[in-house]
Amino acid sequence: MVYGDFIDQDARWPTIRANGLKWVETQRAAGGHVDVIQLPDIGIHGNGHMMVMERNNLQIAAVKPPLRPARSLPDKARTAPLYLSQLPAGARAAPIGARQSPLPR
């Protein structure tokens, strides 16, 4: 997650950032890895929330999160079908948005 300047000067952004940081903590608690980059902390200033449209967008794009060691996927994820052709014979893929559980409607 990348945050720019002026967050404390806006009525909404302090809450948005706080909620984002709470989400980061839940991901980390579950074993996930999320990097949080505060642009002002690394010397990049003058940015709002549309960083791709900023004058210094190339400077922002050059920011690289810290490298993480490679991790392998759990066996279940590694063997999950990626394409419909990999599903077992007779299996059907549910349409996007379809209910995945047999709960009564």
Write up this protein:
By secondary structure, the chain is mainly alpha-helical. It has a domain at 2-67. It has 3 helices and 2 strands; from the N terminus they run E-H-E-H-H. It has helices at residues 13-29, 57-61, 75-79; strands at residues 2-3, 37-38. A two-stranded parallel sheet has the order 1-2. Strand 1 (2-3), helix 1 and strand 2 (37-38) form a beta-alpha-beta unit. The protein is extended. The chain starts with a strand and ends in a 26-residue tail after the last helix. The relative contact order is 0.12.
Set down the secondary structure blueprint.
Layout: E1 2-3, H1 13-29, E2 37-38, H2 57-61, H3 75-79
Parallel strand pairs: 1-2
Q: Shape, please? A: extended
Helix and strand run: EHEHH
Number of beta-strand segments = 2
Number of helices: 3
Cα gyration radius (Å): 20 Å
* Main beta-sheet strand count, sense and barrel state: 2 strands, parallel
Across the major sheet, the strand order is 1-2
Class based on secondary structure composition and strand pairing: mainly alpha
Residue share in β-strands = under 5%
Instruction: Report the uncertain regions.
Output: none
Helix content: 25-40%
Distance between the termini: 38 Å
Mean pLDDT over the residues: 76
